[in-house]
Structures are given as C-alpha cells and as structure tokens.
Amino acid sequence: MRKIEDKRDKNRTFKKDSSFLKAEENVFDVPTLKLLYTLANKGYITEMGGSISTGKEANVFYATGNEGEVAVKIYRLTSGTFKAMDPYILKDPRFSNIRHSRKDIVFAWTQKEAQNLLRIRKAGVRAPRPIVNDRNVLVMEFMGKDKIPFPLLKDTPLDDADAQNLFDQIIEGMRRLYVRAHLVHSDLSEYNILVDVEKMEAVIIDVGQAVTLDHPNVREFMARDIENILRFFKKYGIKEDKKIISDRVKER
Ligand code: ADP
Ligand code: MN
To answer: Rounded to whole angstroms, how far apart are CA atoms 173 and 241?
Structure first.
C-alpha cells in the first residue's frame, strides 16, 4: 500500500515539474530527464536556470537547489565524441573493470570527474565542490556570483602582475595535484581555468580526464598541460623553461 502511495506521489511531482526542462527535451534522452526529475525531487535542483555552456560531450546549466547556486553538468548519451574519452579512462587503473559500452564509459567518466574534484580539493586546489552525481549527471558548486559564472582565463583581462600571480597559482596547483593528489589534469589550458577576479584566484574545472600517476601516458599528458600554460602566459612576458617547470611540479 505504502509503496503504491509513494509511486503515485513521485508521478505527481514528475508531472508537476515537467515544464522546467521542456526546452531541453530534444537534447536529453528520457532516462536523463527522469534522473533530473529525481534530483529535483530530492532537492538538489529546485529551479533549473539557463544554459552556461554546450560542449562537445556535455551541457552545463545554471540551477538553484537546497545548497544554493549550482552548476549541473550533463554528459549527453545520444551525441558526442566519446571515442575521445577512451585513452583517459580505459587505462585508468581505478576504472579497469568497467564495461566498454558508450553508456558505461560516460557513467564512469562522470563518476571519475566527481572523484577527481574531491581529490583536487583535498589537495588544496580550488575547484568546484561536487554535490551529487548519478549516471551522466554531476551537480557541483557554482563557481561564480549572482548567476554569472567566473570568466575563463582566456577571457579575463589581466595586467602583467595579475598574470604572474595566476601563473604562479596554476603551477603551484599542478604541483599540489601531482604531489598530494597524484593526479595530472590532462586537459589544462586557458579554457579549463576560471578566474575569480575579485580574489584574483584560479579555479580548476573540467577534470573528467585527469589521470593518476600510474596511467601509462601520464608524462605526455603533463608535458602537454605545461606547454599549454607556458604558451598562454607568453604574451604577458612570462618565459619559463618547460623542463624547469616540470621539475617544479614534481617537487615535494
Ligand atoms: P566541457 O567538457 O564542455 O569543456 P567544462 O567542465 O569545461 O565542460 O564546462 C564548460 C563551461 O561551463 C566552462 O567553460 C565554464 O564556463 C562553465 N562551467 C563548468 N563548470 C562550472 C561551475 N562549476 N561553475 C560555473 N561555471 C562552470
Ligand atoms: Mn572544458
């Protein structure tokens, strides 16, 4: 009896709230929409706001929930370039036993992103706090203020002193990631770093592909991250040697 009651209640809420994602109906498959309703019923999402970003594999939305402003990152199950995920996840020892269907890779990827965010934060690097994740949806702390996300590093106007400050923060962040969290971001660039301009603080995002140091390609991934950062900061007069930076990142 009780079970039936619960079921009916659930359906009612489902119906009542079904307008708030209407606009996204074509983007998301039915299981994803159902999952969003479940997260809404649990209070993680009370109001879905606008789209922040439409990427190759995921959409990011602004929302509010019981924990305040949140960002909802939704990996699409129906379109996207999931082959790009393979080298990062299939050789990660933490995920060695996943089945290799696309759906399973996406679910493992979402899980890995949430785990990585936690590890990164524990290492003392600023990154969004993961709030809840399930299947292909990650709800995390919104990095921004009054509905406006912090700008990407690439879009932040900087004077040379700001640039030097952020550069030092980013290299120190990579060092903490490497030495304390045993992680390499593996997609680090001015596109995956936000800037809290008021505090002039770097915020690391998009960590689904970050790998542990036992990943076979970790050296190559780290070299690429360092090259991206050096390339970006060159125009602010920062010229460092990549070998010296690499040594600095590994310093205990
Ligand atoms: P993608 O895989 O599509 O690159 P990202 O994780 O980089 O996904 O997110 C895409 C964009 O969404 C980011 O460039 C940033 O502007 C915004 N974004 C992502 N996470 C957050 C967050 N926690 N708070 C605010 N904005 C975010
Ligand atoms: Mn990104």
So the answer is: 18
Nearest protein CA to atom 1 of ligand 1, as residue: 55
What residue ranges define each of the domains in the chain, with the CATH number in brackets?
2-145 (3.30.200.20), 148-250 (1.10.510.10)
Provide the token pair at 240: 């460092």
Residue 8 CA to ligand 2 centre (angstroms) = 40
Q: For 86-145, what is each residue's pLDDT tens digit?
A: 888 888 888 777 777 889 999 999 999 999 999 999 999 999 999 999 999 999 999 999
Which of the listed residues 45, 60, 154 should we mutate to test ligand 1's pocket, taking the one with most ligand atoms within 8 A of CB?
60
| Ligand 1 binding pocket includes 152 (Cβ within 6 Å) | yes
Q: Ligand 1 centre and the CA of 76: distance in Å? A: 14
Q: Give the residue numbers marked as catalytic.
A: 187, 206
Task: Please tell me the pTM assigned to this model.
Answer: 0.90
For the stretch 117-126, pLDDT in tens is 999 999 999 9
DSSP one-letter string for 64-88? EETTEEEEEEEE-SSSS-GGGGHHH
Q: Measuring CA to CA, how many Å separate 135 from each of 30, 45, 74, 139, 177?
A: 13, 16, 9, 11, 26
Q: What is the dihedral of CA 17, 23, 26, 29, to 10 degrees?
A: -30
CA distance 43 to 196: 27
Ligand 1: centre distance to CA 238 (Å): 26
